Amino acid sequence: MKTFAVVLACLALVSASAIDFSNVKRVEELDIFWEQLDPQLQVLRPSPESRIVNGQEARPNQFPYQALVLSFFDGGNSGLCGGTILTPNFVMTAAHCVVIGTVATHGTVVLGAHNRQVVEATQQRFSFDQINAHPSYIAALLRNDIATVRLSAPAVFNEFVQPIDIPALSDTRTFAGMTGIISGFGRTSDETGSPASDVVMYSSNPILTNADCAASWNSILIGAQNICLSGAGGRSVCNGDSGGPLAVQDSGRSLQVGIASFVHVNGCASGMPSGFVRVSHYLQWIADNSDVVLRN
Fold it and tell me: Which of 5, 126, 229, 252 is deepest in the core (most CB within 10 A)?
């Protein structure tokens, strides 16, 4: 049952005209986002000097499951995030990408994009039709930081737009030690004023055990609902990548094991582990709040 859903007016496919990103901020740079966080978590807030970093540009259609999620909130605020394609009708993202104090009033999802600043023939654009944020999402602690968005029309799958697999119900792996792959349109540098990337970037690092992750992070943050990626080599998600995927290669297919949730105040390239929502912890919720069919 969708206990925390906002049903927006059914909207048609968004026009293929260029989206004006000039006034769009990454969600993590909105003051209203930080105002809702617990004082103990204000340490995560990036300073002006410390904002996927140390990654490389993806090939077009290398990550056909990648979504761009643009949310609009009361007060004229708008936030840029990532997401992933679950089915023709639903994408998955972080709750903090669509709920900041209140639920987003409306939004746009772009699929099949390589360069978000260009109207590419591969792109499919949709309005939000429904937002499902986890009913136990605690903004102050970034707990249960997961949401699904129903698209205003079904996506058309092709070589540039494809769903990602999520773990089966019987999959008890922690994925620690496996190579995690991150992708997104977020910030590519810790340099002051560094913009979000126009193109899809990606990087990889080992996935950590939760114990190793908690040894680096404050224990208030890391729980069974989290999964962490090593920050070795300064490789990490960054501002604007929130809601995007942490994936592993499993029998030749991409399997999403995490949703980008937080990075350290010292900077995306600081070497600190980045924190993700553990997808396998929320499988039944995902099924209940989308039309994905779980594998046994």
Answer: 229
Judge whether 242 counts as a catalytic residue.
yes
Among 71, 96, 129, 165, which one carries the catalytic annotation?
A: 96
CA pair distance 134, 95, nearest whole angstrom: 7
215 DSSP 8-state letter:
H
Residue at 192: amino acid letter = T
Q: In which band, very low, low, confident or very high, does the pLDDT at 10 lie, cut at 50, 70 and 90? A: very low
User: Among the options 114, 127, 134, 145, which is catalytic?
Assistant: 145
Residue 186: exposure state from Cβ atoms within 10 A (0-12, 13-18, ≥19)? buried
145 catalytic, yes or no? yes
Closest CA to 26 of 133, 148, 186, 200: 186
Helix (H, G, I), strand (E, B) or coil at 257: strand
Q: What are phi and psi of 268, to 5 degrees?
A: -65, -25
Q: pLDDT at residue 275 above 70?
A: yes
- The amino acid present at 281, given as its one-letter code, is H
Exposed/middle/buried for residue 93 (C-beta within 10 Å: 0-12, 13-18, 19+) = buried
pLDDT by residue (tens digit) across 14-49? 555 567 665 666 676 666 676 676 665 655 554 433
70 has which bridge partners? Answer: 80, 108
